[in-house]
Input
Amino acid sequence: MSAAIAFAVLGASLSLNGVFRGWAWLVPAITTVFVVGLTLAVLRALRVHPVLTTLGGFLALVFILDFTFFRPESIAGFIPSGATLDTLGQFLKRAGETVVSETAPVSPNAGIVFVACAGLGLVAILIDALAVPLGMPATSGLGLLVVLVFPATIKPQGGGLPGFLAAAVGFILILGCSQWFAPDSRLQTDNAHGTGQLKRSIVIGGVALVVGLLLPLAVPGFERGTFPVGSRLNPWGVSNGLNPMITLGNSLRNPTGDGSITYATSSTAPVYLRSVTIDKFDGDTWAPDDREASRRIGPGRMAPDYPLPAELVRQLTVVDTGQFTSPYLPVPYAPTAVNGLSGRWSWDPETLSIRGEDSTTRNQQYTVYSALPSVTSATLSQDNAKPTSISQDFIQLPSNVPDIVKNTAKTVTAGANGNYAKAMAIQNYLRSSQFSYSLQAPVQGGYDGNGLSVLADFLQQKSGYCVHFASAMAVMARLEGIPSRIAVGYAPGHATGATVAVAGQEPLPEYQVDARDAHAWPELYFEGVGWVGFEPTPSRGVVPPYASDPVAAGGPSTNLHDENLAPGASTPAPSTAAVPPVAGPGVGSGTGTGSAAILYVTAAALLLAVLVASPRLVRSGIRARRLRPGGPVLAWAELQDLATDYGVPPVPSETPRHFAARLSNSAVLGAPVAAASPSGADDDAGQHAVASLTGDFERQRYGPPAGVPADTAAEQANAAPIRIAAVRAAFRRNATWFEAFRADWFPPSLMSRWFQLLSTPFRWLGGMSTAAARRAAGSWQRLFSSIRWRP
Output
């Protein structure tokens, strides 16, 4: 059993490939699960109390995690100490930063691998507890589902077929082992080890596996990917907010337009909506620094900590977030005041990022007043002073910057004089024809993230999307002494054609953005000017006029993004004109939408029909299985279930002969009936069949009476289906249409078993005994069987 559990957990963990980059995480995962499983097996072989066995599994998990990850800080290499707890806090913080700031596949740093190994070890202990001491092996699949769902919600392509198949095989092995060592007492077998149960488990598991693979074809929303996730299935709801960096790639790869935001602005061109600033870089990831100690409450009046120039361009923007949900407020940069918000909000003086303290952006309508420095290439080129008015945190870099990043920055900026010239050189290099925009290349190449190792791979492959281009420019700018950070939010989007009336203003043109417009761009700081945005990502966003190099005319695209453009293709010169509306999902494809709707309705109808017919199909299968091999025991079980379906269930305290007598004297069998009538003759045949089945069962169970010859096994096998058919025909003749309908489509004998099966988790949670559950199932069965329909 321990081997089966270990195989199932490690098989399910194969789905983590793609969540982590490479396979370095697999060795500690195998070690952790193996040690935990071996400990549980040894303790159970020594017949230790089940509670102590589970406790031993937890101790083994602690020791192996300590030995693997905290050996230098531990006593004797595997016993935790005070230093171990300090390092544990650092690991958990590192794992949290990875979750917040990296996109899958993430670099397998010690923090995130520790969390994964601890989680797999806990799942192994949970499955063992469910399968062995609690005696509920079927529910152990919930633990495997936990492992599968996590990568299914993170990876664009889903959990993956290898992990799903391995988990399914492991689950079948768990069921087979549980039946081998603890067979169901209700099954007829002469072997204490439940012969044939492993085969039965394989058949059941195989059917479940086929259903799991075919189910996505019938459920609307599954278009690509592997069960239990499809490319259009969003487990967090259709209005998921923008989580900095980690969901950015998934949002861009999402074909739907979830999280739509509309805004109207007094600007002469559509604007970027900025949600959060990513400015903390430790070498592995970029992460937001919320600066809790310096945050200020209430964005009604805002001003940055650094000086602004005298000449500012003031704008007004009205935003409606709709169903978009995020803790960070999307606003044009740089906001000076935000009015109309509901809830409590705070802002950071260094980044002007606005965050909800007790609310989110969902269903918010607000007005943003912003002031931008009047920036030109001439003013930026005049500023070559070393920045002194902002924190040096924006220029810090770790010591482990790869040589390819250093050499690239040095080569690209060679001959450039001043910060502006260096910034333009980096932007032009990244927008050159050497680079291409691709959402899939980083995923396929295993460098979809924002750490230094990812950046090195990106500069080699020269293909990626906005996260990679923005990270590359920000890091290379810091290498050249220019303060930098990354803004995460939305590119300008497209015009809706509508206008919004604002008091004291001319009607403002309205624009719309959604998940497909999610974007990241670098911002560089220039002394006396402030933070200035650049656009190094080809075919995305708008290159501002001050960053448009006249020499690069006819080069890479500087228009609003067009996802239909080939990566690196030439595009027209910059334009501030409104971009024509981009067709959303279903626009211009009415035939396809109608066909999809018909397909979904048909699939839903077929699924509903299968669900309604499933009790009848299962009951028919049980009857056919019992009568195919024949035999008095199986025929007697079918007679009892058949009588239950028609309202005469057996009583546990009565003997077979008493049950047969009660059944023969019941109205459902038509007794007493005049033998002269045709129906009476048929009912008499049913009573004779009941008597014959009872006699065969008694002789099989208790032995034949003295002097009475027993029928041969072949005679009993051939006679059983005929007798059951006669009894069933008599039942149907004497039943009302409602009773016959219930017996065929919702048979009480089957429904009571399903009720008992479904009550297993609740019985475990509520402490209900098996006997109490059977009594409850029997009460439900009698109640359901007693329902009568009379016109």
Observations:
- The chain has 24 helices and 17 strands.
- The chain has three domains: 2-218, 248-552, 611-785.
